[in-house]
Amino acid sequence: MNQSFTVKMEPQGWAFEAGAGVTLLVAAEGAGLRLPSSCRNGTCRTCLCRLREGTVRYLIEWPGLSLEEKRDGYILPCVALATSDLSLEAGAARRA
Known about the structure:
Radius of gyration: 12 Å
Structural class: mainly beta
């Protein structure tokens, strides 16, 4: 059984499904939404957004975030996988 989670993007109010093992960036693209991105490996920080609700895990041990940013809820969708339903603050997101 493939588990998926609902991801809500604020302030736009858009929502999409993120399947297990699919990064938030790829899941958003599959739903016709675009987040700014460049490296897609957790180092450039172009896709940085804030996790308002929910939990994620990362494909890499320590993505390009400071400890303070992690505490403040910032994530890198290019290497983040949903582990629950999420609410993301992604002001730079747009429809494809």
